[in-house]
Amino acid sequence: MDEVRDKFNSMARRIHFFPSVMAAFPLYVSDGSYEISYLLLFLSLLAKAAFSYEALLHLVDPPFITKGMSRFYKFFTIANFEYNYGVSCFSFAKIFFTRKEMNDIFDLMRKSDLMLGSLAEPPDFRTQIIQDGLILIMMALPTTIRFFNLSLWTFANAAEQVYLTWVNFTIYLSIAPFLQLAFILKNRFNLLHRCLLNFAARKQQTKIEQLIIFHTNYCDVSAMLNDCFSQQILLMFTVTFMSIVLGSYRSITAYVVGSGAFVTAKEFNALLYQIMIDDKTNDIATNKKLQLHIAMKREVQFTACGFFPLDYTLVHSKKVKLHFAMKREVQFTACGFFPINYTLVHSMVAAVTTYLVILVQFEQPTTSVNHFIYSNSIPNSTYPTALTTTPM
């Protein structure tokens, strides 16, 4: 048991230590003191806010506000940047003030892992590290491109890229513990799936009942995790949606005007955040339903009249527990407004496409009027005239 406890404590420290390492705060975070890293990150956010505000305040013509754009779009763009920063600050403050709930989550997971014993192996974080590395590369890509293109390297461009990179970076850090814990829950549900199939094949009813208890604990952990991070996820989805709409509109407008393709990696890494969260939450729910459905199918049979046991040695209480365990859903939501799954990505893409079509249509009349005025200013001799007949 001591070995299992050490493995779990090491895994817990890694979850809280990993965001601190990415934010250049190499603190050795132990149980009960991980709040220091989040406090330092929050203070560093305030320092960055002062720099970003001064840069935006004193820049007469920031690079992200191109000529020819309406005042409403300029105001909406700056408001979006400030909103992104506010989301990052709120997310870190929310994590800092919900440390008690996070400790409760770890305590419940620790109890379940201790009951599982040697089966509770720590998951492989190599996939997570690769995904985090790709996100960091996507964040640093715009700054790197502007650094090598000296014609675009100005103080205004540098201030914009530092601001955008830092805001995206902190928003990702605020949900990094959620991604790590969701990854661990996915590993635990897969483990329960394999154990249920093994014990059901051997007709070990007592162990099946124990696994149902473990499953209930992990469902409770999922619900507590959703309560801790639902507000951050809702705000992050709002940031993602606004960033994709504004970035796509800006890119299309710049392309139509002829100022070149003004595309940054901000929209891509924002969509990558959501795909990562959808992938983990969707896998957790799918694997949970699959494992219990298979175990339930082996022991009971559903008909119009109710449940009838195939194995008559199955006690009625165990049958009821298995039935209620299968009916319990594991679903992450954004404050209850909408579920987090792959359909959310489809809805976002459809909404963005609709808004872009509307925005392009708003820009079309201005272009047509300008073309009409320009055409009328050209001498009529340059245009072919209609054929006229002269009297004989």
From TrEMBL:
Bilayer topology term: Multi-pass membrane protein
Record Pfam families: 7tm_7
Subcellular location: Cell membrane
Ranges that cross the membrane: 36-60, 134-156, 162-185
Keywords for the protein's UniProt record, in alphabetical order: Cell membrane, Membrane, Receptor, Transducer, Transmembrane, Transmembrane helix
GO biological process, one term: signal transduction
UniProt main location, coarse: membrane
One annotated Gene Ontology cellular component of this protein: plasma membrane
Function according to Swiss-Prot or TrEMBL: Gustatory receptor which mediates acceptance or avoidance behavior, depending on its substrates.
Entry's family note: Belongs to the insect chemoreceptor superfamily. Gustatory receptor (GR) family.
Protein name listed in UniProt: Gustatory receptor
